[in-house]
Write a structure and sequence with these properties.
Elements lengths: L1 H10 L1 H19 L8 H7 L2 H19 L5 H29 L5 H19 L5
Helix pairs in contact: 2-4, 2-6, 4-5, 5-6
Length: about 130
Amino acid sequence: MLARIWTGLKEHPLHDIIALALIGIGVNMALVPQPFVWPPYVRDIANDHGFDYAFVVVGIVMLLWVVSKSHHEEWDAATLALAAFLMGTLAVYQFLHVTHTGGFMPWVQDAAILALIITLAVRSDADDVD
């Protein structure tokens, strides 16, 4: 069992990195009180912990795909699409937050993770999963 898990982790390092990044971002956003203050009518939705936990769930599902016996392409495509949606939404919202409030938000690193997810998804479509 541990050998299979270790093999899955070694065979899909980019999936591992993305999954752990999603989990870390989700946990960090859940622990930071009210990171978003703009715009006022979206603030409560943006600071809702449901969005934070979605990151954690998608990261866990991606890790489960990595350690599973069979690597279904549909499962991989779905998790990569969800991860891209979450990271894209977060990066754009953080960028808009920075441009309108002047505060600090780590939108550049989130955009970099989004680029990694998109690159991995394109490679996965070409049957060349990391």
